Amino acid sequence: MRVTDIFVRGIVRDNPVFVLLLGLCPSLAVTTGLVDAVGMGLAATFVLVCSNLIVSLARGVIPTQVRIPCFIVVIATFVTIVQMVMSAYFPDLKASLGIYLPLIVVNCIILGRAEAFASRNKVYRSVVDGLGMGAGFTLALCAIALVREVLGSWRLFGVPISGGADSYTLTLFVLAPGGFLAMGLLLALFNYLGAERQRRLALAEQGVEESPDEPVTDASGT
Amino acid sequence: METALVYFQIMFLAVFVQNFVLSKFLGLCPFVGVSKRRSSAFGMGMAVIFVMTLASLITMLIYRGIFLHPRLAQYQLDQYLKIVCFIVVIAALVQFVEMAMHKLAPPLYKSLGIYLPLITTNCAILGVTELNVIRFTGESETLGGAVAKSAVNGIFAGVGFTLALVIMAGIRERLDSAPIPEALRGVPIAFVAAACMALAFFGFAGMV
Prior knowledge:
The structure holds 2 protein chains of 2 kinds.
Chain A: H1 3-11, H2 24-29, H3 34-57, H4 67-89, H5 91-97, H6 108-116, H7 123-153, E1 155-156, E2 159-160, H8 176-208
Chain B: H1 2-17, H2 28-33, H3 38-67, H4 77-80, H5 82-104, H6 106-112, H7 116-119, H8 123-135, H9 143-175, H10 187-202
Helix pairs in contact in B: 1-9, 3-5, 3-8, 3-9, 5-6, 8-9, 9-10
């Protein structure tokens, strides 16, 4: 597989949140605003890239029986670094991410990539994989946060949108039930788009007798 | 009387008002992954209650007894060792519980065994230990009080998780035979159902 493919795959075809359904806790908990979503996305990307790097470097050294505890300790170390850097330079962001910042340790995406990719691949492929998955995670968080912030508080990145529609905000979307609702509807939308695309490709194949070059998006959600 | 009320408050808060799954978004991966059948949901819930209680108890003992010990306080261990230490405790605990159960209670191991390895990366467990540290380390708390409150919080956070998981499994069993639009089938409709449940649990807000 080409390196660009590894990167792009993490964003669309294997999007960690919408396709693989991993890392659901932060994608609902810190998506009431775009600022938090970007902060969480970048923090997780940093941890993902660094842990993939270390795990890939140590892939011949770690005995298979104890690999999970080893991976977790590596991940926890980088999360601690992120937490300390954040409390030094971005205390506001750290306060609004709250307990979800230390919980990056148990984000299934990171352990999943360490186990499924980094422990079996060369160092720089693993780093690219971490970047791609991190970008996919960040974009997914931003998509959810965009819906919730605009509908829920009529703001973008914490700045009120002009137009004076303050009285029409749907406060539900910044509360817990709205998080589940937005996630469910977005998943349904992506399923629908994926199915439509497949249908169109199938039609095109019948009509022109020309097989599509790019792989068909699998957005079935399982 | 006063103390009983405090513990009742912790209990009610953990199960209903601040339900881990429905208002704190913790433990969503098993909530979506293991909620297809009621029996497996119940098994997962029991395993989570078990590990959560022990994890709350042990991490609080370590935090109060070692990290905040007057002689060690100057090294500020809680600043940089907390996350690593807690996750290692949880991972070791899960391993130990699995081994002990295998030897001592084979029937229990058979019914819970497959869920145990999944629990290490269940964010509800690390989440409850983090929340305990935030909530129960005030100046006025004694070591015993903090540990007891953490353990109670751990048990009932697990009970709240199980409650949400079992209700969800019941809903999903019935959704199987319902006429649902193509795009919503499976996980999306589960999230919409969870939104309705969260709305129902939202009614408890402000009760404690």
